[in-house]
C-alpha cells in the first residue's frame, strides 16, 4: 500500500512574499506526521539572486524538550528553499524543495513523505558526536 503524500497548494510567484513563504512552510510542515512532543521554530535566512530565478532560504529548527531537559541537548534543522522563476509565468506556483541538516539529498514536498526518523537520526548522531568529544 502506497502512502498518500500530503501537500499544500503553494503560492504563485506573483503573490509571493517572504512572510507568505514562512506561513506556507508552516502550513506544509503541519501535514507532516511527527509526534506532538516535537517543537519547532522557523526563520527566514536570506534571499539569493540567480540568473534565471530568485531563491528564498528558510530554516525550521526541531527539538524535543522535556520537563527534565527543557533545553534539548541537540536540535535538527530542515532547510527550505522557495524558488521563483524569472522565465516561467508568474501565475505558476513557486518551486519548493528542502534538505535536512547534514544531508545533500534534495526533497520536493509533493514527491516525498517526510519521516520523523530523519529528525531523530540527526539528533542521535549529534549526541553521539558530543559524547565522543
Describe it.
This is A-kinase anchor protein 14. It comes from Charadrius vociferus. InterPro entries: AKAP (IPR053084), AKAP_28 (IPR025663). GO terms for molecular function: kinase activity; protein kinase A regulatory subunit binding. This protein has helices at residues 18-29, 116-132, and strands at residues 39-49, 53-63, 76-85, 95-100. By secondary structure, it is an alpha+beta fold. It has one domain (13-132). It has a four-stranded antiparallel beta sheet with strand order 1-2-3-4. A hairpin with a 3-residue loop joins strand 1 (39-49) and strand 2 (53-63).
List the helices and strands and how they pair.
Elements: H1 18-29, E1 39-49, E2 53-63, E3 76-85, E4 95-100, H2 116-132
Antiparallel strand pairs: 1-2, 2-3, 3-4
Neighbour order of strands in the largest sheet:
1-2-3-4
Percent range of helical residues: 10-25%
Radius of gyration: 16 Å
| Biggest pleated sheet | 4 strands, antiparallel
For the termini, the CA-CA separation is 43 Å
Given the structure, what is the number of helices?
A: 2
H and E order: HEEEEH
Q: Which stretches of 5+ consecutive residues score pLDDT under 50? A: none
Beta-strand content: 25-35%
Average of per-residue pLDDT values: 93
Structural class from helices and strands? alpha+beta
The number of domains: 1
Shape: elongated
Count all strands and give the number.
4
Organism: Charadrius vociferus (Killdeer)
InterPro entries: AKAP, AKAP_28
Pfam family, one: AKAP28
GO molecular function: kinase activity; protein kinase A regulatory subunit binding
